[in-house]
């Protein structure tokens, strides 16, 4: 279970990175990207999943 949580967390972080890079390339001269909230939520979710895999309850 810990491996599944860790890999899922890393995949979510990879998706957040791809969204961030794609939106930063398409940013207008005004500077603001459109998906700041979604990138933040995905980053926090990925970190939460990756760190939860280290809890003793998920260790077999």
From TrEMBL:
<keyword id="KW-0472">Membrane</keyword>
<protein>
    <submittedName>
        <fullName>Uncharacterized protein</fullName>
    </submittedName>
</protein>
<keyword id="KW-1133">Transmembrane helix</keyword>
<feature type="transmembrane region" description="Helical">
    <location>
        <begin position="39"/>
        <end position="58"/>
    </location>
</feature>
<keyword id="KW-0812">Transmembrane</keyword>
